[in-house]
From TrEMBL:
Binding locations of Mg(2+): 15, 43, 157, 159, 253-254
SUPFAM superfamilies per the UniProt record, alphabetical: DNase I-like
Annotated site location: Important for catalytic activity: 228
GO MF annotation list: DNA binding; DNA-(apurinic or apyrimidinic site) endonuclease activity; double-stranded DNA 3'-5' DNA exonuclease activity; metal ion binding; phosphoric diester hydrolase activity
Protein name: Exodeoxyribonuclease III
UniProt KW Magnesium keyword: yes
Cofactor note: Probably binds two magnesium or manganese ions per subunit.
């Protein structure tokens, strides 16, 4: 497939919470209607790429790339559909935590890197918080090196609400998974390292969420969290035209988030 030349990109990102389930709920129909230039999915829950290739990946007009958690069924995994053909797609980040559990996918385009990521959840009772913090540190070290080569677009489920505005009940959730001091401090450190939260950059005071628990009618009552992001290198910030959350789109406990950027 030839590389499509564009001056403006629309990229969508969606934690689908199981791509087979999302497909049954109309994911591919929705994608064919919305036609983003790039679509990033997280938590595909596919351990075998053959399953993806045969039954799900054939979306007309797109190149398809995936990274599966091959060591554990029904867990993690990321997937990217792209109308633009990248120069390279990387899922092996060496002998370190970034290569574990099918959590990352780096797409190298001529003018930027795109990193599709599904961050670890710190889990109830914070049993995986040390693992997540180790992942976070390795992630930050890696992207700082990449940013010296060319600018980055970072997207995915970061599993953290950065500020109180990013969740409906901050006082009740202090110290809970996704809203611990450690996770929030790391997110601040990431942004201070030369990256911009595109949604908050364009909408400093807007209250909108991208994830709701399946329990207690939280989505109906909009008791949610904003934990899905598009971050960009600072030198790309002024090229961001739109940053948005499609909170009316169903099919998962998350909703898609989007970025429109001039390239």
């Amino acid at each position: 497939m030839k590389t499509k030349q564009v001056s403006k990109l629309t990229i969508l990102s969606f934690n689908v919470n199981g791509i087979r389930a999302a497909t049954r709920k109309g994911l591919l129909t929705w994608l064919n209607k919305t036609k983003p230039d790039i679509f990033c999915a997280q938590e595909t829950k596919i351990h075998d790429p053959e399953i993806l290739d045969e039954k799900i990946l054939r979306l007309k007009g797109y190149n398809a790339f995936w990274n599966c958690a091959t060591e554990k069924k029904g867990y993690s995994g990321v997937l990217t559909y792209s109308r633009l053909k990248p120069k390279e797609v990387k899922i092996d980040f060496g002998n370190n935590i970034l290569s574990q559990e099918g959590r990352m996918q780096l797409l190298d385009y001529s003018q930027f890197y795109l990193l599709n990521s599904y961050f670890p959840h710190s889990n109830h009772e914070l049993t995986r918080l040390p693992y997540k913090l180790k992942f976070n540190q390795a992630f930050l070290s890696y992207i700082k090196k990449l940013d010296k080569i060319k600018p980055l677009i970072l997207t995915g489920d970061f599993n953290v609400a950065h500020q109180e505005i990013d969740l409906a009940r901050p006082k009740d959730n202090v110290g809970n998974p996704g809203f611990t001091d450690e996770e929030r401090v790391w997110m601040t450190k990431l942004l201070k390292s030369g990256f911009v939260d595109s949604f908050r950059y364009l909408h400093p005071q807007k209250v909108q969420y991208s994830w709701w628990s399946y329990r207690f009618n939280t989505r109906v009552n909009n008791i949610g969290w904003r934990i899905d992001y598009f971050l960009v290198s600072q030198r790309l910030a002024k090229k961001v035209k739109r940053a948005f959350i499609l909170d009316k789109v169903k099919g998962s406990d998350h909703c898609p988030v989007g970025l429109e950027i001039k390239i």
